């Protein structure tokens, strides 16, 4: 039997009877334009079937609790091994999950402290902040405690009688308000802002000494300051147990502050007092990983060499993958998608498993060309350990290292779904496919940048690692902000810029609200126009054609899918049997426009819909469709739930809405993620359209095609974390090529020779 994963007749999503042999224990890259079907092969067919088969090995009882997935649509799939999907989903978990705990580096450090720390505390659990034996009792290892934001709670320009206390039951006439008014400490008609410091203290924290009793309507109550009262009644409780409106109010007035006992270190005083070479374990977890690795290597303890080497190797893996700027104490929930994926990768590298199929989703996301090469080494290392590594990628730097390339296309959606090339990288270059051609040809360097219309000043920025950055950002042009991961790009343009210039519109990849019910048609407002067109053609009211109305299928409430709640697990999905997934009642489905039902229209791709909505009265629909096509998502169907879109697709959908009436200033974070080289060309043309319409467009980008076509480049660095945080270059791309202190300049020079 040949050593391959053999796929025959695959038809998931847009796949057109794909036959494919993927070599095992090799590195295979899947590429092709966005929407061509790469994920449909790698994730929805190979990984999905492998996971389904694994689930089947559980007992029937356990299977009841697992998400039931249908068998992927294919004639046969053989040669599968157990698969692990390493994607960009933010790492689940809570405040207790840190870079150290998820990579196991922290568990290794605890073993080191258990053996070498003085005074000795014996067991590793004494250093665990997830165990009562190690945690700081004040914060139970979370490092922060809930506090009340006085400014959100008390409105100084109002008196008690006017409702100065902004909290349910404390407003004028409320039960607790009475206690404050009857206390005699305050004039209920005086603005709270005019209170003496003493009165303010009594209002918030109560008087010194024994709490006085207050008589309200014949009953006696203990007077307590507002903050201590709210803290005791609400903050100490599990928010889940509070009534909805109270919970909302509590969330509004509460903030989290560092724990006063441990200062955020999470550990007991005993754990913090145990030192190795003069340092506590908490000092070490707050260092940058790159510095910690050096420190561990320098420790003089020959008898513990194997443990020290293990720790240093794990830390080095983080450094090599471009994450040396993180600290082990960083909460995993604050990591970006790309960072999360790389942290997960490090965890797998440490695993003893072999002959596993790893499937990566664009692992180069967020990485500077300089770091991509180091990440490539880790992908190779996984394959060399005897694993099958499948990577969905677009960057030529990653495609280049593949043992085997699968190029999917030629187009997107129905125009794709076939394997257009399969073989080694050399063959790809000669194949004549869109990918092959782009591999050989880059966007030229812009030599005549636009003249700015003015500039925006960012002053004294110090967020995260920024070193008091003051910089002028030219307006009316396309600005690329570059630099290695962790150099401070996001801190500057996503953190500080919108604070100093609140009119900035940040177009990100975040999930949109209500994404199960929303789709491109509803999200863009096109659905309203489509309903009107159907209503007019049939002489009925437009609301009938809304999946939220009486026209919707009553069994699935217009979702087309039935979701069964499984408690903590992902809900189970099954197609609605009443409407067959078509979302509407039979009656509504019988009302047509030029022979098509509303369900037919929702199943059209944007491109097909452009050919259907050509009547004069349908101009608003055509305009939105053309914007969707212009941003490169013409292959999506109008009714595809937003929850199934990738981050990059969501970002382009948001951009399409902006095209109608462009704002002054846009900030985009890596808009090329998920885009094939051919799509990148279209994206650049789109950004140019915004700039030509008068907008300033600031993009965080690693993609050298975009950097080459920018009018102005701001390069952050020189390194990551504490070694970054300054602007190392500001000027046109043609000048950046000569800036040899800049890593971006060097990468650009290599490409443009
Ligand atoms: P790629 O990974 O190459 O960007 P995909 O495999 O994600 O492409 O998508 C291929 C086609 O299948 C696209 O037209 C896409 O819109 C469609 N598609 C993908 N996932 C779904 C889904 N869950 N429901 C409906 N259509 C989907
Ligand atoms: P880039 O966008 O260039 O990758 P960032 O601005 O995200 O860089 O990060 C710059 C520095 O700030 C890094 O050292 C990073 O660890 C730190 N940082 C970023 N976000 C946070 C956060 N939410 N909490 C703590 N530190 C952060
Ligand atoms: Zn604490
Ligand atoms: Zn239904």
Automatic annotation (TrEMBL):
It is found in: Cytoplasm. It holds the Pfam family UvrA_DNA-bind. It comes from the Bacteria. Residues 445-743 form the ABC transporter domain. GO terms for molecular function: ATP binding; ATP hydrolysis activity; DNA binding; nuclease activity; zinc ion binding. SUPFAM superfamilies: P-loop containing nucleoside triphosphate hydrolases. Its main location: cytoplasm. Keywords: ATP-binding, Cytoplasm, DNA damage, DNA excision, DNA repair, DNA-binding, Excision nuclease, Metal-binding, Nucleotide-binding, Repeat, Zinc, Zinc-finger. InterPro entries: AAA+_ATPase, ABC_transporter-like_ATP-bd, ABC_transporter-like_CS, P-loop_NTPase, UvrA_DNA-bd. One of its GO terms (biological process) is DNA repair. GO terms for cellular component: cytoplasm. Coiled coil: none annotated. Belongs to the ABC transporter superfamily. UvrA family. This is UvrABC system protein A.
């Amino acid at each position: 039997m040949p050593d391959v994963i053999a796929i025959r007749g695959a038809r998931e999503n847009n796949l057109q009877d794909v036959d494919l042999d993927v070599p095992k224990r090799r590195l295979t890259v899947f590429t092709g334009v966005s929407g061509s079907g790469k994920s449909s092969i790698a994730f929805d067919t190979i990984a999905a079937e492998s996971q389904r088969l694994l689930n089947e090995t559980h007992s029937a009882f356990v299977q009841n609790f697992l998400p039931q997935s249908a068998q992927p649509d294919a004639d046969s799939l053989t040669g599968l091994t157990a698969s692990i999907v390493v994607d960009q989903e933010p790492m689940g978990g809570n405040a207790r999950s840190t870079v150290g705990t998820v990579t196991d580096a922290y568990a290794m450090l605890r073993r080191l402290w258990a053996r070498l720390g003085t005074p000795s505390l014996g067991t590793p659990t004494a250093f665990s902040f997830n165990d009562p034996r190690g945690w700081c009792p004040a914060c139970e290892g979370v490092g922060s405690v809930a506090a009340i934001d006085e400014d959100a709670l008390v409105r100084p320009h109002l008196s008690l009688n006017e409702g100065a206390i902004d909290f349910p039951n404390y407003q004028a006439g409320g039960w607790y308000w009475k206690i404050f008014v009857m206390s005699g400490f305050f004039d209920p008609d005086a603005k709270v802002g005019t209170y003496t410091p003493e009165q303010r203290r009594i209002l918030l924290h109560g008087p010194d000494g024994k709490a006085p009793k207050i008589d309200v309507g014949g009953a006696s109550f203990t007077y307590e300051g507002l903050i201590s009262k709210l803290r005791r009644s609400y903050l100490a409780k599990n928010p889940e147990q509070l009534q909805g409106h109270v919970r909302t109010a509590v969330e509004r007035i509460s903030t989290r502050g560092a724990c006063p006992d441990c200062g955020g270190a999470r550990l007991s005083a005993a754990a913090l007092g145990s030192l190795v070479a003069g340092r506590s374990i908490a000092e070490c977890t707050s260092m940058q990983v790159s510095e910690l690795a050096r420190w561990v290597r320098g420790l003089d303890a020959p008898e513990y060499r194997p443990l020290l080497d293990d720790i240093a190797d794990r830390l080095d893996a983080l450094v090599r993958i471009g994450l040396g700027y993180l600290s082990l104490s960083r909460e995993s929930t604050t990591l970006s998608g790309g960072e999360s994926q790389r942290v997960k990768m490090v965890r797998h590298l440490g695993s003893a498993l072999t002959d596993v199929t790893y499937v990566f989703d664009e692992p180069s996301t967020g990485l500077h060309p300089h770091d991509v090469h180091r990440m490539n080494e880790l992908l190779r290392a996984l394959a060399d350990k005897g694993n099958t590594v499948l990577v969905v990628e677009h960057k030529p730097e990653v495609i280049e290292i593949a043992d085997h390339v699968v190029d999917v296309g030629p187009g997107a959606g129905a125009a794709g779904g076939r394997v257009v090339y399969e073989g080694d990288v050399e063959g790809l270059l000669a194949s004549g496919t869109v990918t092959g051609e782009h591999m050989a040809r880059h966007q030229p360097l812009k030599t005549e940048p636009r003249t700015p219309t003015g500039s925006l000043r960012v002053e004294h920025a110090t967020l995260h690692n920024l070193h008091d950055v003051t910089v002028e950002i030219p307006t009316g042009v396309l600005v690329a902000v570059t630099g290695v991961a962790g150099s401070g790009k996001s801190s500057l343009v996503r953190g500080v810029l919108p604070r100093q210039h609140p009119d900035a519109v940040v177009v990100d990849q975040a999930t949109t609200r209500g994404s199960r019910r929303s789709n491109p048609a509803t999200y863009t407002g096109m659905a309203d126009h489509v309903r009107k067109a159907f209503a007019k053609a049939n002489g009925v009211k437009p609301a009938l054609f809304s999946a939220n109305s009486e026209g919707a299928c009553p069994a699935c409430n217009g979702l087309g899918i039935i979701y069964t709640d499984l408690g903590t697990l992902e809900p189970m999905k099954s197609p609605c049997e009443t409407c067959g997934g078509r979302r509407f009642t039979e009656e509504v489905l019988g009302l047509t426009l030029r022979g098509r039902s509303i369900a037919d229209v929702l199943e059209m791709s944007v491109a097909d819909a452009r050919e259907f909505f050509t009547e004069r009265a349908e101009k608003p629909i055509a305009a939105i469709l053309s914007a969707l096509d212009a941003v490169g998502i013409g292959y999506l169907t109008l009714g595809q739930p937003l929850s199934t879109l990738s981050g990059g697709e969501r970002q382009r959908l948001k951009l399409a809405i902006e095209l109608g009436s462009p704002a002054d200033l846009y900030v985009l974070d890596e808009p090329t993620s998920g885009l094939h080289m051919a799509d990148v060309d279209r994206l650049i043309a789109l950004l140019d359209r915004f700039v030509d319409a008068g907008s300033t467009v600031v993009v965080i980008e690693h993609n050298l095609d975009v950097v080459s076509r920018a009018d102005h480049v701001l390069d952050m660095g020189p390194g990551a974390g504490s070694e970054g945080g300054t602007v190392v270059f500001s000027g046109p791309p043609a000048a950046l090529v000569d800036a040899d202190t800049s890593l971006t300049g060097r990468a650009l020079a290599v490409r443009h020779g």
